[in-house]
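FIELD: query
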Amino acid sequence: QVQLVESGGGLVQAGDSLRLSCAASGGTFSRSRMGWFRQAPGKEREFVAGIGWSGGSTSYEDSVKGQFTISRDNAKSTVYLQMNSLKPEDTAVYLCNYHSVFRKDYWGQGTQVTVSS
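FIELD: result
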């Protein structure tokens, strides 16, 4: 059973940076695609960024391109989301997604990011 634990969220001011981490256990992390999603109050969950198993392929939601960077460390079974120049509209619960080689999705509990203006 795959388990995901996110960390790194918090309350910051507009323009600040945060680095989220998601540590995975119980699966074949190095062969799985990983991603970050977010869900703001009253809104649907939305894709933020994804990364292929080797780290060579990344994708981003248009509004975060150039602002967020996803990366992974397969030796540590951890995926990261570096978020720069944060804006109040980035406020949300950020969730880690693990897409296994068997095409099954797992989710973490989420970490709250709050950006004050």
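FIELD: remark
The radius of gyration is 13 Å.
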